Structure to design on (1140 residues):
């Protein structure tokens, strides 16, 4: 929200701080100030010019030649293309050789032969408004040559305040001034307007229905509208606002519209009370009825949109049809226009939830709805009504017709909240005296009185709907006292009994494994197109990615594409994250996974030669290392094709001892990745991460006796898996077989068609003695004959 | 006998290693003399066979011979290797040529930062907790004292999976889940992914990492809250970093605070990174609102506590001077490789 420094100081003359000091103070005790802007920036060269005469340009239809009094001895001649220039009127003038706010220097030029000394400026050129079409006429009396800064009251600062949702009272200058004034609320005053029209009128009270100047005002939804004030002003003339009013609004970034709208806008930003003016002549009845919308009713709002209403929405209606969305926006048909003479003025309190419903339903957010949703001050209505009536009469003329009406079916009870000074100090960890607590609260409108038994009864001001509980008061004390005044004292603490998350250790290990292999950890967003996910988002950011991923690998493959597209041929990525699946319960199933994908060379290139590209044996080793961390006893094995639905080629599976498949790895098929022709094979794996730590390592004694190694070249027929051969070896070997490994695989040559020679190295060792050749020979014989018998495997050359 | 065999094996291993390490023929010759020469240890050992009991001599002799033969074989192999290959580091080799590399992996910058934050809080007794990323509106909003019909719920634009199921907008639902399961003292940190319906731009991502913290026990006060956060700031950002607490609003903490640290670039002088203020916002925090305790059945008169939450990506961006949050999620290897040494 924008606040004018000058305006604040007018409301609280006791404020002596600079704008920057105020901003800092507000940040420390209430809400942050995002920005401070000096409104006079770049405007110091500009002066007020009075146009003495306007004549047609002899050679150009669209240009006029003006003689302008800019406070010098002689008038200057200015040629302009502005559509309207009024003789005798005042305009901002910048002389030749001087600068506009944007830094652009004005030159003296000849326009189609006529010399032009300087220029008359538009709001846009001054950086104080949006209007670029015409030059900016200044309304009021000025002296030619006066500083424009002074004339427009632009020697001011705009503070951009970031008001948190709990502080609706800070959405107007009055509330901000109350927070900042040294003496708080007691320092505040409403200053008189220039040529202030004082007005006295009486207010008639009614419970649900009454009349003012012949207009019936009736509340049909007491919950939606606990209080509604109305007044009729007749005989006013709608027109541009005087310069001081327009300046005020420009200072806070608001565009002046006309004197009536500007007056309501002014009071909105001053006293934080949304107001609305209807053209009385357009109200059927005339009546003002505050009710729920009827089924099928529509309203064309001020923004020109035709809106369909529902029965939960609160409207203002005349005798027949809705004329405004309560607390949101007026209707187009009842809008105040240039020809409006009589007004019906609305000053009301609308229920936050009711306004919120309509705001959400119509996707309409306005200054008014923003405030009503957060909660306005129902007791502030009479003051705001008085203020806006006086302002309208001051700037637009007219008179109040009859009594104003105050329909007040549901008066709010004054709220009292108990506050225990002991609790304040217990929670805040300091020893504040009762007087200090009172000094924090009283200036901003709280009234404290002794409630007995160490409790203070605190009367909450009606503009603070957020204060309902003791803790809310404690926060008020803490922030008004100043968070920075509390010490930073570390106390002792008890260790928690909460057990650490089971995945912490698994994540750490998996990262270590992957980083050891040279992989880079990636993080991707889990949104996926249909087909890559099962769980749908109701409100996705993009229709293309309207699901949550059901795996990590697919997304990572897209990240490889991203890298390949940037000429990176060596890519090694892994990610730890969540995959989502549909589930029986209300929440989707979440599975914690790790995926990796890689392509390119096994090692960086070196001048001694290349290390080759990653292949399936690297894949198997990476997967084996990952599986070892994933769950104890998991094994990597070729996939059982009948049960595999994925698209990886040469797929391997990680299978737990109890037969559950935890993940897969394989070659990413060419069809599943957009890769340039030069890219190498792409390998991928994905595995479910099992929580917990692997079993504690138990030390095995180092051998003290030498091992005996024997190499066996076995001729294996057909496609007998190597694992099966190894299985037979282990099965029949004595306990002294320490390890079995394959060190060569060979096909073709002199081997029979369809056979392979697999060379094994068997290592034997006994823990308690040195093995003899004889013993080992016997074991090897047993192995070879079992292989011959069970798998028809022969020893090569035997 | 055992002693004999074990010294023999030791000799075998060290001999084999020395042979493999010999980088030039001259060096290899020295190794040969040391192990197999007339005064060598193996020769001494062989002589020692005679001193063993009669029945043990054959076995000992056989083993000693095996070792001798193996070393001779290795010497031969190494000699032919050295003859074939150019001397690797012989004088005159250009050692300015680059060494043979291996790929180096790297943790994601968010992981680096999250781990460090969790480690610092571990010093203050916080353990890590975790919770689901899809949540009920109860856990995400209501239990955290955020009625869905209050404007405070609008502060975060939420992804919905169903009318009452959302992608969590903060890690705070884990507070409730942990407190439902455990009694105080609770001290947890919760790193995790959270979701906001913001399109990607330089400072927003629709899914990003956050760290939540919660401490609950008897007698935890605002003073201890401030001290714990300041301790973290000094440990993470440096001893001379100042911390500023200022009022804010979060429905689930009260008093609420926004925590700023003195700008890491200009040290408070004011620069473009801190928009001239000298301060950088790093976390939202505060004392746990009693309504949150009431919702999990904790006695809010007896227990107090504090909670905090911070964007991990934002802090990683500050620390590593990353200008655009999208870099964290693009997985460009040229970006990720930069954190190899981090
Ligand atoms: Zn800075």
């Amino acid at each position: 929200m924008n606040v004018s420094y000058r305006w604040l100081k007018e409301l609280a003359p006791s404020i002596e701080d600079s704008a920057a000091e105020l901003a800092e103070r507000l940040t420390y005790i209430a809400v942050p100030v995002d920005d401070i802007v000096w409104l006079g920036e770049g405007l110091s060269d500009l002066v007020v010019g009075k146009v003495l005469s306007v004549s047609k340009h002899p050679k150009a239809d669209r240009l006029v030649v003006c003689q302008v009094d800019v406070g010098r001895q002689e008038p200057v001649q200015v040629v302009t293309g502005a559509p309207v220039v009024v003789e005798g009127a005042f305009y901002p003038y910048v002389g030749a050789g001087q600068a506009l706010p944007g830094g652009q220097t004005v030159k003296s030029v000849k326009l189609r032969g006529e010399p032009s000394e300087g220029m008359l400026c538009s709001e846009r050129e001054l950086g104080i408004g949006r209007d670029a079409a015409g030059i900016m006429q200044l309304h009021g009396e000025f002296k030619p040559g006066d500083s424009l800064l002074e004339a427009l009251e632009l020697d001011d600062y705009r503070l951009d305040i970031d008001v948190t949702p709990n502080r609706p009272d800070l959405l107007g200058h009055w509330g901000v001034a109350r927070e900042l004034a040294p003496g708080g609320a007691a320092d505040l005053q409403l200053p008189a307007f220039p040529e202030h029209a004082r007005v006295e009128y009486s207010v008639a009270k009614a419970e649900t229905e009454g009349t003012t100047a012949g207009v019936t005002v009736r509340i049909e939804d007491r919950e939606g509208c606990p209080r509604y004030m109305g007044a009729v002003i007749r005989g006013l003339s709608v027109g541009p606002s005087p310069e001081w009013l327009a300046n005020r609004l420009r200072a806070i970034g608001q565009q002046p519209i006309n004197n009536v709208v500007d007056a309501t806008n002014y009071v909105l930003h001053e006293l934080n009370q949304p107001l609305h003016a209807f053209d009385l002549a357009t109200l059927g009845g005339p009546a003002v009825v505050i009710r729920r919308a009827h089924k099928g009713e529509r309203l064309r709002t001020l923004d020109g949109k035709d809106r369909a209403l529902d029965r939960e929405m609160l409207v203002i209606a005349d005798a027949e049809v809705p004329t405004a969305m309560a607390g949101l926006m007026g209707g187009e048909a009842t809008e105040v226009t240039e020809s409006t003479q009589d007004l019906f003025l609305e000053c009301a309190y609308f229920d936050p939830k009711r306004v919120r419903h309509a705001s959400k339903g119509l996707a309409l957010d306005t200054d008014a709805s923003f405030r009503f949703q957060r909660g306005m001050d129902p007791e502030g209505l009479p003051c705001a009504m008085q203020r806006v009536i006086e302002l309208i009469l001051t700037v637009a003329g007219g008179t109040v017709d009859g009594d104003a009406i105050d329909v007040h079916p549901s008066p709010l009870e004054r709220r009292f909240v108990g506050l225990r000074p002991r609790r304040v100090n217990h929670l805040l960890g300091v020893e504040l005296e009762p007087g200090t607590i009172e000094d924090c609260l009283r200036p901003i409108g709280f009234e404290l009185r002794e409630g007995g038994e160490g409790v203070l009864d605190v009367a909450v001001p009606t503009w603070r709907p957020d204060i309902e509980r003791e803790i809310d008061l404690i926060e008020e004390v803490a922030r008004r006292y100043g968070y920075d005044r509390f010490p930073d004292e570390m106390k002792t603490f008890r260790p928690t009994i909460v057990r650490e998350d089971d995945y912490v250790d698994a994540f750490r290990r998996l990262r270590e494994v992957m980083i050891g292999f040279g992989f880079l950890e990636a993080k991707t967003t889990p949104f996926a197109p249909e087909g890559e996910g099962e769980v749908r988002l109701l409100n996705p950011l993009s229709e293309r990615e309207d699901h949550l991923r059901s795996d990590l690998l697919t997304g990572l493959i897209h990240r490889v594409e991203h890298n390949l597209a940037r000429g990176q041929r060596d890519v090694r990525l892994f990610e730890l994250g969540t995959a989502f699946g549909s589930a029986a319960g209300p929440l989707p199933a979440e599975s914690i996974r790790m995926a990796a994908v890689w392509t390119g060379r096994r090692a960086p290139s070196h001048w001694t030669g290349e290390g080759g590209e990653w292949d399936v044996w690297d894949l198997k080793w990476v997967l084996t290392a990952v599986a070892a961390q994933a769950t104890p006893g998991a094994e990597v094995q070729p996939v059982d094709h009948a049960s595999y639905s994925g698209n990886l080629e040469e797929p391997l599976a990680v299978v737990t001892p109890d037969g559950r498949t935890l993940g897969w790895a394989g070659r990413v098929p060419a069809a599943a990745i957009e890769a340039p022709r030069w890219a190498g094979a792409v390998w991928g794996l994905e595995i479910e991460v099992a929580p917990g730590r692997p079993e504690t390592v138990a030390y095995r004694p180092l051998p003290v006796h030498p091992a005996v190694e024997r190499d066996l070249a076995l001729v294996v027929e057909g496609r007998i898996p190597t694992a099966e051969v190894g299985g037979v070896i282990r099965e029949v070997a004595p306990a002294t077989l320490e390890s079995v490994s394959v060190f060569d695989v060979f096909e073709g040559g002199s081997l029979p068609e369809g056979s392979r020679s697999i060379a094994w190295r068997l290592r034997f060792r006994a823990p308690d003695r040195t093995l003899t050749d004889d013993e080992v020979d016997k074991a090897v014989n047993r192995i070879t004959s079992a292989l011959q018998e069970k798998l028809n495997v022969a020893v090569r050359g035997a | 006998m055992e002693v004999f065999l074990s010294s023999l094996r030791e000799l075998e291993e060290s001999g084999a290693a020395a042979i493999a390490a010999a980088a030039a023929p001259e060096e290899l010759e020295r190794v040969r003399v040391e192990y197999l020469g007339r005064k060598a240890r193996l020769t001494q050992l062989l002589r020692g066979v005679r001193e063993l009991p009669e029945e043990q001599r054959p076995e000992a002799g056989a083993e000693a011979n095996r070792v001798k033969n193996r070393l001779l074989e290795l010497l031969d192999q190494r000699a032919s290797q050295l003859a074939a290959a150019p001397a690797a580091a012989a004088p005159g080799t250009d050692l300015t040529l680059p060494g043979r590399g291996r790929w180096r992996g790297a943790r994601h910058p968010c992981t680096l930062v999250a781990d460090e934050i969790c480690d610092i809080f571990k010093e203050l007794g916080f353990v890590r907790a975790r919770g689901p990323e899809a949540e009920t509106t109860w856990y995400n909003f209501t239990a955290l004292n955020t009625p869905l019909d209050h404007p405070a719920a609008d502060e975060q634009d939420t992804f919905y999976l169903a009318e009452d199921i959302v992608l969590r907008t903060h890690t705070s639902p884990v507070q409730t889940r942990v407190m439902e399961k455990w009694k105080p003292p609770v001290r947890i940190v919760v790193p995790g992914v959270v979701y906001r319906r913001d399109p990607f731009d330089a400072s927003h991502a629709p899914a990003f990492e956050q760290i939540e913290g919660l401490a609950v026990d008897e007698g935890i006060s605002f003073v201890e809250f401030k001290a714990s956060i300041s301790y973290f700031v000094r440990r993470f950002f440096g001893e001379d970093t100042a911390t500023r607490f200022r009022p804010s609003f979060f429905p689930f903490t009260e008093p609420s605070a926004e925590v700023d640290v003195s700008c890491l670039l200009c040290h408070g002088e004011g620069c473009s990174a801190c928009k001239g203020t000298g301060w950088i916002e790093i976390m939202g925090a505060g004392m746990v609102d009693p309504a949150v305790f009431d919702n999990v059945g904790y006695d809010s008169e007896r227990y107090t506590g504090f909670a905090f939450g911070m964007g991990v990506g934002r802090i990683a961006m500050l620390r590593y001077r990353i200008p655009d949050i999208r870099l964290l999620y693009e997985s460009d290897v040229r970006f990720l490789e930069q954190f190899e040494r981090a």
